[in-house]
Amino acid sequence: MTETSTRRPPAPTAAERAKTIAKRGGPATLVPTTGHGDPAAERVEPVLHHVHASGSVSIMLPDDHALVSTAKRTGRGELAVMFELADHAPVDLREPIRGLLWITGWLRPLSDLSARARAVSIADERPDPRLLDLGHGLSLLRLTPASLVLADAEGTQSLRPHMFSAAAPDPFHSYERDWLRHLESDHADVVCQLARHLPEELRDGRIRPLGLDRHGLRLRVESDTGDHDVRLAFSRAVESPPDLAVELRRLIGCPFLSAPVVSQK
Known about the structure:
Layout: E1 2-3, H1 14-24, E2 28-32, E3 48-51, E4 57-62, H2 66-73, E5 79-88, E6 97-109, H3 112-125, E7 138-152, E8 155-159, H4 161-166, H5 176-186, H6 188-194, E9 206-213, E10 216-223, E11 226-233, H7 241-253, E12 262-264
Antiparallel strand pairs: 1-12, 2-5, 3-4, 4-7, 5-6, 6-7, 7-8, 9-10, 10-11, 11-12
């Protein structure tokens, strides 16, 4: 990413960004890291997945799935796998994936008692009717993380499980989707006013809201030369919708306020 300022705009840490992607719970696939000649080595979409605060992942698969039987028949009752979680933009973009989180580790089958307890813990955080099918054609397995890798607009970084576990998700992780969609559909004038902060060569492109976190707002410019991501930094980190409203007003036009620091991908 190239910058239009000598100072890079502040952003959440890699561990915080990874935890935020995990909390959003986007689409995921599972890939065994060994045994590529086995049918189970193909990419698998879990029936249900949930990344816990510790970085462990609950994976729900049909009882007769090859991964379930493979995990059960390995000598230690575990299978080396990679779990890929995609972070999709809330608005309709021609390149919708904003980031990817890969969690590599060991997939283990759970006892009936452990699986039920884990399903209850998931339901407490994210109720899902598919959890009721546990033990009725579906099995719950646990992925114990060995390492994590995050790739997004800020770069690619490896994380240890303890780093992920200690991080907090962005305070706007559950608020971002509806807010950005509202900005796109009902406040096109605001998006146009934000364009004044963009590098001049990008202002003729289609400007879209891309992301929101406590440090700033990200825009996607879709142009004939490709897609360009720009971060507009807030004057301070914000933690609540009222604070966000104040910072947005700053960005769209109080003339006595200094211009935000921006970076361009």
